[in-house]
Fold each of these.
Amino acid sequence: MAVNWLPFIGCLSIAFGPSVTLFLCTAAKEAQGVILLITSAFFWLLSLLLTSLVWLAVVPLRKHLALTLVFSVLFQEALRVVFVLLVKKTDVALSRISRETTDLFHGPRYSVIAGLGYGVMSAMFMYVNVLSEASGPGTYYTPGSPSMPIFVSGALQASVMTGLHVCWGLLCSEGLEKRSWPLLASVTLSHMLVSCLTLMNEAGISPIYAIVCSYLILAVIGTFTFKRFGGNIKPFFKIQ
Amino acid sequence: MSGIRMSSVAVTAENCENGEPQAPEESHQGQANIPEIVEPEDDDAEEQEMLKYGAKHVMMLIVPVSLCMIIVIFAIRIITMYDQVSQPQVYLVYTPFNDQTKKTTGSPISDAVLNMLIVLGLVIFMTCVLVLLYKYRCYKVIEGWLFLSSLILLFMFTGLNLHEIVMRFNFAMDYITISLIVWNFGVMGIISVHWKGPLIVQQGYLLIISAMMALVFIKYLPEWTLWFILGGIAVYDLFAVLCPKGPLRILVETAEERNEPIFPSLIYSSTMMWTITMAEGDPVSSYNPLNSSSSSSAQGSPPARPQPEMEPEEQGVKLGLGDFIFYSVLVGKAATADDWNTVMACFVAILIGLCLTLLILAIVKKALPALPISIFVGIIFYVCTRWCIKPMCDQMALSQVYV
């Protein structure tokens, strides 16, 4: 048993380390951040519920994950838009009552938190059941990769999904604010693309390809988001 | 109520700054006399005050509620006693209709309904006894009752759980050490809950007591009965707190009239009880205790039915221990199913329900039942996750497809 705790902790850190760090840097500082995080996690849960209802209702779908996946992505993005609009509406209502501009749910920080809630919830739903097996005896492999256990590939995939969701959350709220439809479409399309990449796992291709591609996409989207929000890389290299 | 009073103070301060002192009542009722401009400002002050306190208070409850649920989840996953059904299962005497005794009515549902009625009747009876005792000022009796029940929980169940943990990890420990640990732990709990102690220690013990109570329910109630009791308690909670003649409402009102706090061993408070009383100048409307009560009967049986109460004000929010217990029961029951998705869904659902309740609380500003919204959202998500989401997620996890 003792031996298996090591891979367990390792996978846990890969999958949720980045999100915990991000959580501590953004949401944990103030109460409304945590509330926003929980609400956005709840919205992701709602989208999953809608997907599963469709999955359950349309019997032929149960055999084809690819179709379920399309529905799921559409529901997720639709509910993300609903959530962003809802938060905006709350914000407007709040700033109307108080003349001082409340920064209650305003600014990129809250979009990061909203995206984080989405990402963490999706990573947990997809990965925690797998991870809970990691502490037990034995290990699993997907047909495509006899060398990389499912725990490790899943952890990498879960963490990249969290990162992507943070970027998508930022881009989505930016797109809605600026009424930029291409931006919204690109969010949905890239989400679809990343999810479809993981279909390779099902097809028996090594998960390494899907993971590498996802990380490349994260790098591209991350850079784009960073630029879009006027991020400046110099402070990172400045010697304090 | 203090919520309203607090905002009036803010309003007065605001007006004074503008050189237009107004009586707070006027700004609310005699709107015609007030310049138009002042009006929105009053709202401002009020709203801002409310928002700031609101979010903070939601957090003050979310953290302990989450902690309590996490304790229960891990206890269930670690201590195998709680999710084993192998040995002849023992149930509480209050649920006579089950498959172990031969007294079954034939269908698990009708058994469960009958059991629920018995347990609920017991809860109502106990609450009424407590309210009557409180009304006729038999404080000593109530104190003794609560003391006894926390004594049993803190000593007997701590010992029991410790025993199971030691067995689970195959860790040798002699009885002397165990009794020393249990004694120290229990005595400190009794002192901090019933007498005084640092706030954080008191809160910690209240959480542990709630978690142990929840574990007792999960272990010793038949499955269907447990679900019916959860639903029944939530509905009962609604009536007990909101009906004009509801027992908990009477309890809260009496306590308010007497201007004294309700027993600390029944309520989780985010601030120290005594500070509240001292800090408030105005004796009448100052303290709003909330209702809660949980009676516990001996044997750690299904006693506690507590209620929720909370008030968002500067003095802090309060939540009945019963709410902690039943939230944890729901999540803990989900944890016995060996599926983390269900647990996480219930967890998030309950927190969302709690946030909603607190939102309503901020609007209506009176003691509210905390169980109904959370428990129903929780049950809905339990059912949906178990039968819709889980099969789909299992399939996805099996083929490693991420959405």
Amino acid sequence: MSFKTIVDIFLNNWPMFLRGAGMTLFISIIGTIVGLIIGLCVGIIRTIPIPERGPKRTLLLVINKILSIYIEFFRGTPMIVQSMVIFYGTAQAFGVQMNRVFAALLIVSINTGAYMSEIVRGGIVSIDKGQFEAAQAIGMTHLQTMTNVVMPQVIRNILPATGNEFVINVKDTSVLNVISVTELFFQTKSIAGATFKFFEPYFITSIIYLIMTITITRILRSIERRMDGPANFIMAGNQMQVERPEDIVRKKQGQ
Amino acid sequence: MERVIDVQHLSKTFGTNEVLKDIDFSVNKGEVVSIIGSSGSGKSTLLRCINLLEKPTSGKIIYNGKNILDHAHDIYAYRTKLGMVFQQFNLFNNHDVLSNCTVGQIKVLKRSKEEAEEIALKYLKNVGMEKYIHAKPKQLSGGQKQRVAIARALSMEPDVMLFDEPTSALDPEMVGEVLKVMKELAESGLTMIVVTHEMGFAKEVSDRVIFMDKGVIAEEGTPEEIFNSPKQERTKEFLYRILKEV
């Protein structure tokens, strides 16, 4: 083992490493985004206030039950087992032939969705009741309250947790090697098998994982900062700028 | 005089706790009514029942000749006619000052953005907050937040303004600026229902004062009647306690 062998192995196999990393990123990005969308929908549905009586109450209770079974099932079983069941299991039992990459996306998405549902629900519950009341008091419906007041705050608050899920997904896609998806871990395994070396390829792969996760963390942090906006605000019509508030509004509209 | 809101036989129970017992209460156009009473007397609950943030257990709320508690009634349209100012301000944290005052107009009243901003600016000027239109709520002091909250409610151009202890969460030095705005509103002829612990304000500004105790209206009258010659023993007791503190 020497520094030279590491470099050699990388130079000889870099297209495979790169393709593997690309597949890993592709699956984890799509999986996280779809998972976030699932999580937002489920979280919003689970926090709809349940009326005291009527058919809407029964419907909501049934839907809530189904959703909580979904969450419990996918949070409570390992993704590696889910992969086997969904890809090989359904193929054998029901004859469903799935594209490997599609199966991978499906597994990561619904798995992330289950976690994100609870993160979103927590985010909604943590918003001060006063925000809901103020929105209702000016005549907003529940849907208007959610879209205009509550969800923008929830999304800002759950960004760190979403970043967490993203980083976890980058790493956990490695379990998809059991269904032969050509992501980074699977590629490394092939390289290691071909060269009979284990330290070097896996060392390179760990560095690639690290580069991906650190980059993602940085990008999400800067998105958070952008969403927070500037720490200070501009006074309308002070001595520095002789515009009146009306002018500023007009200018904003002109844009 | 034209009645704006007429509350009849209103009751509200939380579990077994009867918070409001058979309340009859009405407000005329242009009238300023103050509701006073000790904590837990039901005055905030009454206010919250009026705009249906709490659902009354029984009774009627008549607005424009119609009972709002009828199932057929559109409570969303009704709520736009009542401006609510909360003790904890409850400004929308994700909106700046201007858009706090426009979001309801645009989304609920379907006004255009230009019109909404013009109206919002008018009321922000009234409360002296027009310079802060770009500020986020967290960048404002308590008194400033409450003035924006008042402008937000006014921007919907409601028939009645409801104030739920608007100065109770403020630092003492900020109370004045909010009361000044409210006094100007009262003088402009706005119909107002104010739940308050500010006896000075109740005495000076209101046309009528209601004293609530243990879920009922114990006494009702002009400020002079209530503050200078209360008839009920419990009114006297309450005023004695409150005024001694000051």
Amino acid sequence: MSDNLKVTVDGIEVEVEAGTTIMQACEKAGAEIPRFCYHERLSVAGNCRMCLVEVENAPKPVASCAMPVAPDMVVSTTSDTVKTAREGVMEFLLINHPLDCPICDQGGECDLQDQALGFGGDASRFEDNKRAVENKNMGPLVKTIMTRCIHCTRCVRFAQEVSGVPEIGAIGRGEDMEITTYLEASLDSEMSGNVIDLCPVGALTSRPYAFTARPWELRKTETIDVMDALGSNIRVDMRGREAMRIMPRNHDDVNEEWLSDKSRFVWDGLNKQRLDRAFIRRDGKLVPASWDEAFDLVESKLNGKGNKTAAIAGDLVCAEGQFALKGLMDALESPHVDCRQDGAKISGPRGNYLFNASIAGIEEAGALLLIGSNPRLEAPVLNARIRKRYLAGDFPIAAIGEATNLTYETEFIGAGADTLADLLAGKQSFADTLKSAANPMIIVGQGALTRDDGAAVLASAIELAEKTGASFNMLHTAAARVAGLDLGLLPGDGGFDVAAMQEAAHSGALENIILYGADEIAGASLGNAFVVYIGSHGDRGAHRADVILPSAAYTEKQATYVNTEGRAQMTEQAATPPGEAREDWKIFRALSARLDITLPYDNLNALRAAMYESAPHLARLDEIVVADAPQTPSHDGLGTDAFTYAVSDFYFTNPIARASTIMADCAKAKGARIGAEGTGTDG
Amino acid sequence: MSVRRLNEEQPSEFAFTPENLSWAEGQIAKYPEGRQASAIIPLLWQAQKQAGGWLPEPAIRHIADMLDMPYIRALEVATFYTMFNLSPVGEHFVQLCGTTPCWLRGADELKDVCRKMIGEQGEITEDGKLSWLEVECLGACVNAPMVQINDDFYEDLTAKKFEQILNDLRQGNEVATGPQNSRRASEPEGGLTVLKGDK
């Protein structure tokens, strides 16, 4: 028997692989099957019964999501039996559903609403009292109205399978079955927001978004997320100038259809703590100023002091802005430029700083070694991909770093660089595991590179990859970083890196520092330097600044970001920058004109043309351009210190997240959880 | 059946006694490595016995830890099966069958006895001796009406007989289990009607 089977759906013959479900075969034949519990990225539950179809010679309708096709099966999705069956299922589902659509946040984007309209009957024959269910606490992100629950268990399966934090369950049974977390603890997952999308009804909705807007009054802009270096595809929903919510978009090679909580719920940070006009420091206080006044001051400080001026690019900034900054610094003849504000010792060809195996490539990997990386906090969606591969089986995972729960079985083989040296010397058996596996992977985190011996760690990891035949992958934490490295925002000849800049600022060797969205540097470390802050939020950088030039956040400009695997993607403008804030590149262009070193582009297209000339792969949107093979950089030898991870405070990694009260609530809930665990009274 | 919730007051911790622990380990050893979760029901049952007829929340966690299961999975099992009592019960826990055959044979009168002697369902008498719950069919319809008290069936009850049993249990007197109308097991009432020999 061949692997392909012939199936007839509504008179259309399709050929499908053995093991395909009837539902998939129907979809292939173009027949629409209604469903609630079935989700293509989750296991099959088969408990909603909405997907019933008629199969010839079967005694009764079958659940198409759970039944594999058989040779020469004849399926009908349009017969009277199917119509009656669907109406019956829908009538039962609606028996205990409150029909409170007018006050339900799911209204307008509700599967139950849509399918009741499309496949339901016209009336219910149920005359008794409806069931009512107590609402459950699931934390600051997920609001529950459990009376609306139809028990599809998608959220339970998501928590168990994808997020790897099996905290949601169905207690009780029959009519009294209830979805809850253990003792109503808040969800301890970085991906919990996805259950809101998965819920086909209004039982799990977004708590921060509750009662604020209706889907049809929102303007939807498809763009790219910058909360981590993954470049998750998102949709920003705006009402007027205000961001109301952020939803994931499907991109099979990047985020599938998931989104981390930080990316999803950071939207209130876009509306808070905004820099909407220029400020200058007078008598130790920041006072509002016009662009002209601000530029006057910057001009007076920077003129003729090109080589005493340094620039640091931050974590959320775009490629265009960084290119313009680099252009400005080149024109100022200053070699002091750095985009690695965390001090990561990254150098060498493009292959040295990319996730070379690609995110989707994780699924083909045969073994994995994590070096100083905690992907669960650094890129939760990527972590879900590793877990997906882990669940497929036969995937040994080892990590060097502090032992932590990554949601999959991980062998922590050591804490620091000495273990890496052991691996290289062949004293650690996991090197053999890597060698014998197909497509082994090594992932290096930023925490391992920001140390003094970061260059040595990078070199050792590359060497280990070469020795074991593994792919070398770097997991970045900043959305801006790869573009910055691509565009060469690194110290030139005799230039200072971030650490040297701070010393130079103290010694007086540097007089001016331009912080372009760089907020992770302690203000005091910049000495008496004159600090120009260009950014969107009043955060650490702005507090230290002598001049603030307000710029656009990631939702307010059309800009290029390159994710950790080297995929260039372009954001779309969902709103205009607030007040007098301007797009980043325009600020550098205007400043260059003031300094009589006018940058050679007057519009975004001209800037992009110049940028594509210096980094052609940025023009190839949504493509991964294969990078040059990694090369071991020079170094001063490995240390022995234990690795620390780049992200410890998941909810506060950048200025937008720190401005968000939702993120603060999440951190509080998390803190309460940890506290409770500490006293042993928590579930 | 109605919504079942964990009791509000819970002991601060739970641990198996040494004997129960070694028994539990024996149960776990019945299942292959990685399938320990299969032992959840016997372990919950033993914990319920040890805790005096009900399952405290710390016991659910304790067992989940023993079996390397998420707490919520263990809670799902404990709340699914009605044989697990989530609130304390009396020393003699009466499960009164109210399903059709027992009801036709006078279960309502037995309920009245319970209400009179114990109180409403779920309540425990002040001396801690008795509590009762109406349950679905216990499979002894031939001897209806019946109740189960702890591990024993008491069948062919009348209100008077039942009251007597409850009184005796409360005072610690010996009580006969099984049918209470002097028939043996489920033999016909009033002696044999068939198979009496050659006639």
